[in-house]
From TrEMBL:
Coiled-coil ranges per UniProt: none
Gene3D superfamilies listed in its UniProt record: P-loop containing nucleotide triphosphate hydrolases
Domain ABC transporter, chain residue ranges per copy: 6-247
Protein name (database record): ABC transporter ATP-binding protein
């Protein structure tokens, strides 16, 4: 088994001539938590959408677990274990927290909305759903309608419904965006916990989160890879510091200066 689980080579995305992602090479190590960071407009979201197959690259290839997935669809790669949060895991606001997770489990098992399952299978969903809720510290919320959850807890529920798909690799798009400090700490601990035995790729603006979570970081700027390495290495890199300071200094902090960049 190769050490690299997800690889991008020469990944490029043009929007009517504008190059949003340019010749990006990425190698994500199996079992690692990998952060994708960069100033506003760096191409993080575009790159994330390419890797999760929500966008088709103009050029380049993506290999997952030794298999070329460049031309596969999001649902196809999800079946291979490469799952993006909020993909199939949209949270239904009028269903309870527990019902949302059970529904995600049901879909994972291939049954769309079949209500013909035997009682024993349904009970199995119950048990597994409660385990997942315990994993994300939502046990006490199981009967609450998802729409009534506080924001941070809603993101935790989204992670639970993603976990219901039993991902080998999870891709999280700004898991802490818009959160209070307390919620950020909780999500960081949660991602750390659920990353055991998995690979995680996350796009994140909050550099404190990246520092605390990521084994490896790729910094993008103007669509290109500017630096890669652990937090200590990339935050000391003068090109990285210049890229952060070179954007809007009022809204984006240098990694070493403030620990947190503004959300664009
Ligand atoms: N569908 C699109 N059509 C045209 N241009 C696009 C499209 N999507 C993204 N872009 C452009 O590509 C560049 C990179 O955008 P992207 O959203 O990937 O950056 P980002 O690093 O995620 O930014 P942010 O931190 O602000 O979320 C931006 O200049 C953006 O305007």
């Amino acid at each position: 088994m190769s050490d690299t689980i997800l690889k991008a080579e020469g990944l490029t995305k043009e929007f009517r001539g504008f190059v949003a992602v340019k010749d990006v090479n990425l190698a994500i190590r199996r079992g690692s938590i990998h952060g994708l960071i960069g100033p506003n407009g760096a191409g993080k979201t575009t790159c994330f959408n390419l890797l999760t197959k929500f966008l088709i690259p103009t050029r380049g290839t993506i290999t997952y677990d030794g298999r070329d997935i460049t031309s596969l669809k999001p649902a196809e790669v999800a079946r291979l274990g490469l799952v993006r949060s909020f993909q199939i895991s949209a949270v239904f606001p009028h269903l309870t927290v527990l019902e949302n997770v059970k529904l995600a489990l049901q879909r994972q098992r291939g049954g769309s909305f079949d209500f013909w399952r035997s009682d024993s299978v349904l009970r199995e969903y119950d048990t597994r759903a409660r385990e997942l809720l315990a994993d994300v510290a939502l046990t006490e919320y199981e009967r609450v309608q998802a729409g009534q959850l506080p924001y941070g807890r809603k993101r935790a529920l989204e992670i639970a419904t993603t976990l219901a798909l039993d991902p080998v690799m999870m891709l999280l798009d700004e898991p802490t965006a818009g959160m209070t400090h307390e919620d950020v700490d909780r999500i960081v601990a949660l991602v750390k916990r659920v990353s055991a035995g998995r690979t995680v790729l996350l796009v994140e603006h909050n550099l404190k989160v990246v520092e605390g979570l990521c084994d490896e970081i790729t910094v993008l700027a103007r669509g290109e890879v500017l630096a890669q390495g652990n937090y200590a290495t990339v935050s000391r890199n003068p090109d990285v510091q210049a890229a952060y300071l070179g954007t809007d200094p009022a809204s984006v902090g240098a990694p070493t200066a403030t620990g947190e960049a503004a959300h664009g």
